[in-house]
Amino acid sequence: MTIAGTGSYVPERVLTNADLEKLVDTTDDWIFSRTGIRERRIAAPEEATSHLATHAARRAMENAGVTAEQLDLIIVATISPDTFFPSTACHVQRNLGALNAVAFDISAACAGFLYALQIARHFINSGNRKTVLIIGADKLSGITNWQDRNTCVLFGDGAGAAILQARDPTDPTPRGVLSTVMASDGRLTDILSVPGGGSAMPITPENADQRLNTIHMMGREVFKAAVKHTCEACETAIARAGLKPEDISLMIPHQANVRIVDAICERLKLPPEKAFLNLHKYGNTSGAAIAIALDEAARSGRMKKGDNILLVAFGAGFAWAASIIRW
Ligand code: ACO
Fold it and tell me: Residues near ligand 1 with C-beta < 6 Å?
């Protein structure tokens, strides 16, 4: 299976750390030194997650030279769907006019795009589907408590997409996904969640007043779990691909916190310049983060044909994944 094209989209409105200083008791220096984030993009009220996803999808389709009719599967990874139902993927299908596709969402928070990559890989390798559109898209601004400095400084909105197709059997270089690790640990559901608004706690005026329908996070616990699981997942993915850390040309990590990325580089003994970062511009866009970074890395020429690329992500669940792709 190969990645035939990528695309991404971020909303126009920029919210800087200086803007946040006016909303909550924080400083640009605190945010940047603890996270590496300088600014993030915020979607307009009328821009739903499917709008962000559709823009990114169109760019990926154009990049791959694929028409809407050719798509036979659409997977959207999101934790901020347009509606409980129908799925955001069905909204995207309608927007694109991709009527030959089957469309569904998956929920794996920030690991969602890598989960989607693995699901799509199975569909393609089994011969069940030929041309698959995977999208990571989130509008976290809609589920952020803008009075909570512990969380509101971290997140942003955006979408990224990729078109996946079967490998050309005449291509002598084995390109595409070389290995994957996917894992989750449901014992950690409480360290990062939106507690209200679902069937466990239907939203009421009282719990809406307490902002229980927004992101709640135990930052230090998330940090520790992220470092532990992502480091182990990277090592396993590299070993399963029959490679060594020094064979990795570029790492595209989840864009949550530069200190987590530094910890992975240190553990793998990867030079920090091998890590692709754009979190200073966009913050943590959850399911979109790896997808946007992959697109930006591809378009900026950071990846050459034959390069071994390490993708790694973690998020609420706790859910995490790593993958080695040969570009
Ligand atoms: N500005 C100023 N001070 C702040 C802010 C802020 N924005 N936020 C918290 N503080 C304060 C805290 O109140 C605390 O004060 P106290 O010591 O008086 O109680 C102090 O700063 C230190 O807080 P810590 O939590 O120890 O700060 P830490 O160094 O752990 O950094 C952070 C916090 C950035 C949240 C870090 O823990 C982190 O990045 N965790 C991982 C988060 C993450 O990756 N989440 C996304 C997962 S992806 C998904 O699924 C959506």
Answer: 26, 30-31, 34-35, 109-110, 149-150, 153, 192, 217, 219-220, 222-223, 226, 256-257, 284, 286, 315-316
> Which pLDDT score, from 0 to 100, does residue 92 have?
98
Query: pLDDT, tens digit, for every residue of 262-314?
Result: 999 999 999 999 999 999 999 999 999 999 999 999 999 999 999 999 999 99
Token match 């990795």: residue? Answer: 248
**Cα separations in angstroms, 218 against 26, 188, 192, 222, 316:** 18, 11, 6, 6, 11
Domain parsing of the chain, residue ranges: 2-165, 176-326
Selecting among 63, 213, 278, 284, the annotated active-site residue is: 284
- Phi/psi zone of residue 320: left (φ > 0), alpha (ψ -120 to 50 degrees), beta? beta
184 has pLDDT over 90: yes
CA of 232 relative to ligand 1 center, distance in Å:
23
Say if residues 55 and 24 touch (Cβ distance below 8 Å): no
Known catalytic membership, residue 110: yes
Decide whether 2-165 matches 176-326 in CATH topology: yes
2-165 CATH choice from 3.40.50.300, 1.10.1140.10, 3.40.47.10, 2.40.420.20: 3.40.47.10
Instruction: Note if 284 is an active site residue.
Output: yes
Minimum CA distance residue for ligand 1 atom 3: 26
Q: How many Å lie between the centroid of ligand 1 and the Cα of residue 155?
A: 12
Please list, in sequence order, all residues whose beta carbon lies within 8 angstroms of the beta carbon of residue 87, skipping any fewer than 6 positions away: 76, 81, 103, 104, 105
Q: What is the mean pLDDT of the chain?
A: 97
The question of whether 308 is a catalytic residue gets the answer no
Answering whether pTM is above 0.85, one says yes
Domain 176-326, CATH among 1.10.10.1150, 1.20.140.10, 3.40.47.10, 1.10.10.60: 3.40.47.10
Catalytic residue among 90, 110, 231, 265: 110
pLDDT above 80: residue 220? yes
Residue of 24, 34, 257 to mutate, ligand 1, most atoms within 8 A of C-beta: 34
Residue 187 has pLDDT above 80, yes or no: yes
Phi/psi-derived region of residue 6, left when phi > 0, alpha when psi is between -120 and 50, beta in every other case? beta
Taking only the tens place, the pLDDT of each residue in 134-154 is 999 999 999 999 999 999 999
**pLDDT value at position 169?**
79
